[in-house]
Amino acid sequence: MVAFFNHNIEHEARRIVQNHDRRGRLLDLIRVRGFASIEEITRELGVSESTARRDLDVLEEQGSARRTHGGVLYAGGMPRLAEFGERPANWAAKRAIAARAVEEISDGETVLLDGGTTTYEVARLLVGRSLQVVTNSLPVANLFASESRTDLVLLGGYVSPRTGVCLGPYANELLGRLHVTTTVLSAAGIDTEGLFNAHLLLAETEQAMLKAAGRVIVVADSSKFGRKSLTLVSPLDAINLVVSDEGLSQAWRDRIAAAGPRLAVAAVEAAEAELSSETPPRRSRPA
Questions:
Q1: Are domains 2-74 and 84-275 of this chain identical in fold?
Q2: Where are the domains of the chain?
Q3: What element of type H or E holds 251?
Q4: 2-74, which class in CATH?
Q5: What separation, in Å, do the N-terminal and C-terminal C-alpha atoms of the chain show?
């Protein structure tokens, strides 16, 4: 009986997360386009018409969308950046992963950071370093905007109201002109096929980030492994380093090793003790 009850709780939790993610993608879609028909929504998101209409009803009640004949108009205001509104899930693990990841970054590098709560923690620990930072994330850019020791390049494009990231053709075009030492990416899910993202437009931007990079570091807590999402961003063998936490199973450690990337595992308790001093790990540029 207890197992059945726990199974129902887990199933309901997954359903809530899926609904939240899907409605976030829908909001991004109509914000980028201004107007989208029901046919476009069902095709782009891969959902039924009834699901699309239910999601639109929710967004309309929230004041983010307005239904019209044949489709929906964007009616939201400035981005609320919901993902940064409260402490994220697995926060201790994300902080530990960030602390381990910045050990791999040397002063003098050009570092490309995508949006997301884990990459935000990486960015926080890079403030004050002698770096050139490229990002499509408004929250990340804000950390470096008044930092004299860091050169900042902010990619333009459409802005996601949930995450504050710039994406779309303008961001992708600029990325095509750049080369960076290191790209740091987050992930909605990682499976044996590779790195996944739940947002179609953001996945395209992340693929452009991969092409611009001399090396790629993926930062993902252990809960992300064994999960797929809407779009495959990259196979595992295109990644140089995966940084996760000690909750990562041995089976997944073996799979990553077999696929090719190097794996770094962060010890959460040790990292929390070090971070309590608020002194970011630093490395000098190799001679």
A1: no
A2: 2-74, 84-275
A3: helix 250-259
A4: mainly alpha
A5: 63
Beta-carbon count within 10 A of 51 CB? 16
pLDDT tens string 146-203: 778 899 999 988 887 777 888 888 889 999 999 999 999 999 999 999 999 888 888 8
| CATH placement of domain 84-275 | 3.40.50.10470
Closest CA relative to residue 96, chosen from 257, 263, 243: 243
What Rg do the C-alpha atoms of the chain give, in angstroms? 19
Which conformational region is residue 180 in: left (phi greater than 0), alpha (psi within -120 to 50 degrees), or beta?
beta
Q: Where are the beta strands (DSSP E) in the chain?
A: 35-37, 65-68, 71-74, 110-113, 131-135, 150-154, 158-159, 166-167, 180-185, 189-191, 194-197, 213-219, 231-234, 241-245, 262-266
The 10s digit of each residue's pLDDT in 22-47 is 888 887 777 656 678 888 888 888 89
Tokens 């470096």 belong to residue: 144
Residue type at position 214: G
Length of the chain, in residues: 287
